Amino acid sequence: MGLIKKACMSKPAFLEFLKKKQAASKDRITLYGLMVKPIQRFPQFILLLQDMLKTTPVGHQDRLPLQLALTELETLAEKLNEQKRLAEQLAEIQQLTRSVSDRNLSKVRDHHTTNTHGTRQSIANPTTQ
């Protein structure tokens, strides 16, 4: 989500596109809302199952399936949270990599510009030139 926010701030055309799509949709949900909506359902289902378990007697035939469903949803929610965390870390690493690459490219350009007025030297073997 942070990546989308950065894109909206740095690319006005992208922000305008999102606004137009939101205005055209029947429920007017933002992109953030669309992305969060499925994830928000897991806690709701977990709470629902917990409430159902509170009112389901211990010997009832539905109690075990409810407990199994709750365990499965909790496990899946943990996996989703872990995947989200990993995706955010990867996006941050990619952003840092681009930033470092841009800086290095800028330094190479600056070095090339300063050397065009003087003697050009090979980086690999400066004595051959």
UniProtKB/TrEMBL annotation:
Keyword Membrane: no
One Gene Ontology MF term: guanyl-nucleotide exchange factor activity
GO biological process: actin cytoskeleton organization; positive regulation of stress fiber assembly; SREBP signaling pathway
Cross-referenced Pfam families: RhoGEF
Claim: Nucleotide-binding is one of the keywords in the record: no
Residues in DH domain copies: 1-83
Biased composition (Basic and acidic residues): 101-113
Ranges for region Disordered: 101-129
Keywords tagged on the record: Coiled coil, Guanine-nucleotide releasing factor
Sequence ranges of Polar residues compositional bias: 115-129
Coiled coil: 66-99
GO terms for cellular component: cytosol
PANTHER family reported in the protein's UniProt record: RHO GUANINE NUCLEOTIDE EXCHANGE FACTOR, RHO GUANINE NUCLEOTIDE EXCHANGE FACTOR 10-LIKE PROTEIN
Name by which UniProt lists this protein: Rho guanine nucleotide exchange factor 10-like protein
Origin species: Carassius auratus (Goldfish)
Top-level taxonomy: Eukaryota, Metazoa, Chordata, Craniata, Vertebrata
Gene expressing this chain: LOC113070479
